[in-house]
Amino acid sequence: MKIQQEEPNKYIKELTQKKYKYGFVTDIHTDVIERGLSEEVIRLISMKKEEPEWLLEFRLKAYQHWLTMEMPTWAHLRIPQIDYQTISYYAAPKKKESPKSLDEVDPELIKTFN
Question: Signal peptide location in the record (predicted)?
Fold first, then answer.
């Protein structure tokens, strides 16, 4: 497919707005942490995941190191700066009591995996 030089953005826009024929979305209740990355967020994620203390300490040390890092310039890319405070770093299905039979499972969830 040949794309006109003056219309590459139009082609990209059309392509990215098409529905992905192999994709799907299942609407379920989720537990999401607000956007942003901080020591507090890392501690909260670790608590929610019930991680051992040594892993939390490892993550906090890695976060402190990451704060000192700069975006590499060797590739000479012209890309916008990433705003890490606009990203949510944790989302998981809300915890419920486990179903005792498939009759208790959300039909939308069953449909997703059938």
Answer: none
Structural domain includes residue 59:
yes
- Could you count the other beta carbons within 10 Å of the beta carbon of residue 55? 11
The pLDDT of residue 14 is: 85
Domain assignment of residue 7, yes or no: no
Cβ pair 92, 50 in contact under 8 A:
no
Provide the number of structural domains found in the chain.
1
Query: Average pLDDT of 57-69?
Result: 98
Continuous H helices in the chain: 8-17, 39-48, 53-68, 107-113
List, for residues 21-40, the tens digit of each pLDDT value.
887 777 888 999 999 999 99
49 falls within a domain: yes
**Is there a domain that residue 90 lies in?**
yes
Measured between alpha carbons, how far is 91 from 82 in angstroms, rounded to an integer? 20
Positive or negative torsion for Cα 89, 93, 94, 98: negative
Phi/psi at 74 (5° precision): -65, -25
